[in-house]
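Input.
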Amino acid sequence: MSAPTLGRTVGDGALAGAVAGGLGAAAMYWLVEPSIRAAIAIEEAGAAHEHGSGTAHEHGSEALVSRPEQVVAGLVTVLVVGVLIGIAFALTHRFLASRLPGRTPAASTMVLAGLGFLTFTVAPAMVVPANPPAVGDPATVDLRTATYLGTIVCAVALAALVTGVARAGSLTPGTRAVAAAVLGVVGAAVLVAVLPHAADPVPANVPADLIWRFRVASLAQIGLMWLALGATCAWLGQPRTTVPTRAAHLVGA
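Output.
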């Protein structure tokens, strides 16, 4: 079976990314947005209490972009980013499939999606927990951004090491699995311990359950996107057979 063309790989990745982005946008609206609205309401209530309702109202009326427009822009952004990530994901799998665990292309695709979720989502969330947009200290943005990117780089390097151990030909299958699992757990613990603590301080008037609902919903949204991306790419990557036509039968005869 010949490898798919580069154009088909890009097209499949874009389609899978669109599916993932659409599901991610829906999850963002139904799961994440309620926590954001609640956090904004708390922020506005605190501003009204501190400065007076009239001043808070005037400040809110000066916003260049309304909240509904922000929501629509956010949903469109998730969809567009999903397409771009889908193309990058398909190209990455095209060039790294032979180095990934998995006996079939579909299996290696799901492995890559799982690694993407762990390295680009779970690892940064462990070191730099997310907060709703209306919650946090702007003075910590630089530290949190640098720590977030550094965590991703370290997590990708760890994922490469774990993958290499999982495919080590000098070890038995059982030993490879145990060694890869131990390396992954120990490596993740070391990363969490070594990387700087960059959690954004949460104001006292913001309930802790609101923060946790936002964090869990955000993880669920992105996890759904990675799952949809991997599953759709795996399905699109299956060999496509053509149904023999009557003309083909006549030529064969």
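The CA atoms of residues 101 and 111 lie 7 Å apart.
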